[in-house]
Amino acid sequence: MKSPNSYLTAAFVIAFSVLLIIPMWWAYGVLLPDDGSHAHGAEAIASSSEFEEKTTRFIEAHRLPDGSVRAEHDKPIYVMANQYTFRPNIIRLAAGEEYDLQMLSMDVVHAISVQMGHTSYNAVVMPGIVTALKLKPTKPGKYLVLCNEYCGIGHDYMYFSVIVEEAAGEKHHEPVGSERREKGDTLKKDDGYGHGGH
Amino acid sequence: MSLVQEIAKTYPGDQKLITAYAIAGLLSLVGAFALAAILVVIKTPAFGLARGDLYYRMLTGHAILGFVYWFAFIQAALLIAGATALRNGGRLWSLKLGWVAFAFIAAGLVINMVGVFAGADVLYTAFPPLAKSFPAAPLIYLGYLFVAAGAFLITLDFLATVIGWVNRKASVAAWKHMLGEIHVSTFAAVCAVPLIFSIVLTAFFLYIPAFMWSMGWISTDASVFALNFRLTYHVMFHIIHYIPAMAMIAAAYVLVELTTGAHTVYRKTVAKGLFLMYPAVVPPTFVYHLMADPSITQGVKIIGSALSLLVWIPSLLHMFIVTGMMEARMRSAGHGLFGWIRHLPWMNPAFASLIMGMITFGIAGGLTAVLLQEQTASLLHGTFAVPAYIHPMVVGAASLIYMGIMYYGVSIGMKRDLWGPAMARIQPYLLSVALLVFAWAGTLAGYAGVPRRTADISFGGAAPASWNTPMNVAMGIGGTLTLIAGVLFFVVIGMTLFAGRKLPGSELGADLSALVLTPTREFRYTPTSLIPGVIFVLIVLIFTAGAFGIMGRWPIQFG
User: Fold this and answer.
1) Fewer Cβ atoms within 10 Å of its own Cβ: the N or the C terminal residue of chain B?
2) Residue of chain B with shortest Cα separation from A145
């Protein structure tokens, strides 16, 4: 190129080409918000006591003898977070079905990090505003869901599990992905109220 | 007159003020590194010493010392230098105000540290409602108010100094003339002023009620307060990030001239115009921190995300211009298309700080790609990938370039030759490589799901054992080497201050002298400097495509 300014122009073109990310969003079909994609839907502001009541009724209605709850795909799943437990602590889903998960913190800001074998999905769970997620599990297995927003001294032990079963609702399969370090037994039996989950 | 001679003409009173800020900053950085050593030990799984009680307290202290006070002090020093050292003997509007500002920031530091060690394990974010359970939390909010006040006062002092340079304040032409003739780095500082005032205003708006709430003087429903606080906090927080970005680039323009003798190839208005872009493109970037939050709508996140892409543009172009300055200078001396790179002053510790700082900035910037986009942020939000990019940015890029400036500050200001030049030569390379190891291993850990801000990542044995390897590399190797590099820098600077050979006049010692080159031709073309930008854009696009690929194969699809 003959003029120094041509290099400057080339540099501007290169710099502005970061905007090629936007056509990538379009190509992946995620440019514009549409139904059921990438919500962290802003639900109405919810009161703790209302949500706690909904969670209790959900657990009562779906509790299994082993302490886990089996969710139904056409009804919301309510999960409450508070220092330092999630309630319910073990949730069973069926592969191939779509679910509506609603989460609320009863106290401080928490978050969830759904471990899916060498990758994770992360969302914040706040007090006062519900985190609404659509989820569709496709692969049976046991998925650990950690709290990944520092919430106090017990933060390092705050987690729950999602067990995805075959569509007919049979026994769960082996854990997904990487090896697990087992200290004695796996998660202790839980009564759905978050006791003994960690 | 050379830039060194110009800097040497700084008025002694201003120099004393700059030195006070710089030394206070250095001591804050030493504190941050000391606490980082404890964090490295706790967070290296191989040592098996994970402890929550100590970890969260040390993490709070480390972040406040490193991100708040090291930056507050050193950036104030650079602000004052921009108005004095780059003004051929020009003086700050009010030394008294400069010292009052210093006192406010120092008081903030003391208050914050008392709070931390009195048990406010709230991290530097100190979010409500969590802060309520820590009785010492009010001291965190109060300390922040003091540092905000100090930052406001020193910025006011700087602004008054700049306004004083305009002879006929009613004349637009006089303003244009002043803005046109000031050094590029001083102009960058002027562009940072509206951002600093926004930060201070938001800080008062945030921390005065937070302080009152934490003292129990006002009662506010904690859940509503949490939502509002978090939103306002992140508006302030991301603007704060861009002060080091702008200051670092402004410092790069000074360093490239001091180390290679390079002058600008393109019209100064181009570089100045690019600094002017920052106040416009930075504000929407607060959305980055709220991509995984339920508190703002997806539409706002996507628009914010798109607007935020613009923030890479001035930084990329500045990097092109600075690299181009080196290239044109070297090629004017007859070096070849790529051969000029070999002949750069790699043994000059300040040049090493500059070049490694720029390289680290580029790599760390590329790592942020997935986190900045609403569509992909959920892959990495809250994971270890976040500190994995932050540390190369703030330590390996901004702090490293500030360290380069400090080498000159100590040499020119104190008239001392560098003590321990061999250590000074290794330190920038060690620091940046160590942080790039931290970045690479930490990013792998983050993609694997390892959370950030968690003392014990084993979660009582429930978490995958495979997480230990990247964390051992990131913390055990990267973290330890970073600490060693930091110690080398502190030793060199500390010993230079007291035991460096006295230099006559305003000449520099051999290690920091500008590269001596004999121009053999007029050369103003900079093709090779285009290459880093191309690599950066490719990295960003590849990481984005990779993230979409990973998300498409998730065994649970989220929407």
Assistant:
1) N
2) B463
Q: Could you tell me the pLDDT band of residue A180, with boundaries at 50, 70 and 90?
A: very low
User: Do residues A111 and A142 both lie within one domain?
Assistant: yes
For the stretch A60-84, pLDDT in tens is 999 999 999 999 988 999 999 999 9
Q: Is B296 on the interface with A (CB under 8 A)?
A: yes
Q: What is the pLDDT of residue A193?
A: 36
| Domain assignment present for A186 | no
Its domain, for residue A149, covers 39-165
- Chain B nearest C-alpha distance from A65 (Å): 23
| Cα(B385)–Cα(B14) distance, integer angstroms | 41
> A85-87 and A90-94: which strand pairing?
unpaired
Helix axes B52-63, B95-117, angle to 10 degrees: 170
Are residues A130 and B527, on separate chains, in Cβ contact within 8 Å?
A: no
The DSSP annotation for B448-493 comes to HTPBSS-S-TTGGGTSBGGGHHHHIIIIIIIIHHHHHHHHHHHHHH
With an 8 Å Cβ cutoff, is B451 touching chain A? yes
Q: What is the DSSP string of B13-54?
A: HHHHHHHHHHHHHHHHHHHHHHHHHHHHHHH-GGG----HHH
Could you tell me the CATH number of the domain that includes residue A142? 2.60.40.420
Q: In Å, what is the CA distance from B83 to each residue of B6, B14, B79, B175, B425?
A: 12, 10, 7, 16, 30
Q: Which helix (H) or strand (E) holds B177?
A: helix B172-181
Distance from CA of A131 to the nearest CA of B (A): 5
* pLDDT of the residue at B112: 98
Whether residue B355 contacts residue B342, with contact meaning beta carbons closer than 8 Å, is answered with: no
Task: Please tell me the total number of residues recorded for chain A in this structure.
Answer: 198
How far apart CA A65 and CA A30 sit, in angstroms, is: 41
Residue A119 lies in a domain: yes
Burial of B168 (0-12, 13-18, 19+ CB in 10 A): exposed
Domain identity same for A25 and A43: no
Looking at the fold, whether A110 and A12 belong to one and the same domain comes out as no
pLDDT at A195 over 50: no
The complex scores an ipTM of 0.90
Q: Are residues A27 and A46 in the same domain?
A: no
| A111 → chain B, closest CA residue | B382
CB contact under 8 A, B558 and A153: no
What is the pTM for the complete model shown?
Answer: 0.92
Mean pLDDT across B223-248: 89
